[in-house]
Amino acid sequence: MTIQVAIHQEQADQVATLKEKYAGMVGEELLRTMIEEEFLDDIVAVSSFGSESVVLLHMVSQIDPTVPVLFLNTGKLFGETLRYRDRLQAKLGLTDVRSLAPHPKDENERDKDGDLWLQDTDACCHFRKTLPLRRALSGFSAQITGRKRFQTDARTDMPMIEEDPQQLGMIKINPLANWSLDDLAAYIEKHNLPRHPLVKDGYLSIGCMPCTQRVKAGGDYRDGRWAGLDKDECGIHDGEYVDGGGI
Ligand code: SF4
Question: What's the CATH class of domain 3-200?
């Protein structure tokens, strides 16, 4: 058995054990258990500071505001998102928000003119998101995501606890997987939390500026992301895009 296969097997066994141990546990209860018991000082949260990110970030801040929060500053974000990140960080008292940029060498070699998104969105997402995140996750055992099943077809069956196909040996925790938009809105209202400023302008799911549009009335949640393209995931959560390069 190769070392890689052995690690995969070990990870699969760990996921199976955690699923059995915490079957039925969701939301804040699952999050607290993972942060305070299973992965103490060995877990990070990943957040886009997007339209509903405040729910997960608020929960994390209530449990342990020193948990590292990884934020992908792709260089293509809305200014509103950057200001919202700063505002939330201060309001929630998060002490370790880490903004991850693409490596300058990657950017210089792959997207000198800054318009790769026009020709190849997968390649652009890969070096602006996947590679920086992969570097930042190194050394941790688990990551928390705010993904929900309703968001995309690929997420329909997403478990609360799963393996990370991109990060060998890493566990992913999705405590809000079964939450609906109504659940999120109710939580935000209950705790009087600030929404991303673009939500009121018709942006339902918010990513990079060139690849995000308003959603027309009656449109689907994800319609504004990579509109017109056969793409609804940036790639940081799956293992499909492989180019072998990158720093
Ligand atoms: S969302 Fe668009 S601009 Fe942002 S990294 Fe992906 S392709 Fe590039």
Answer: alpha beta
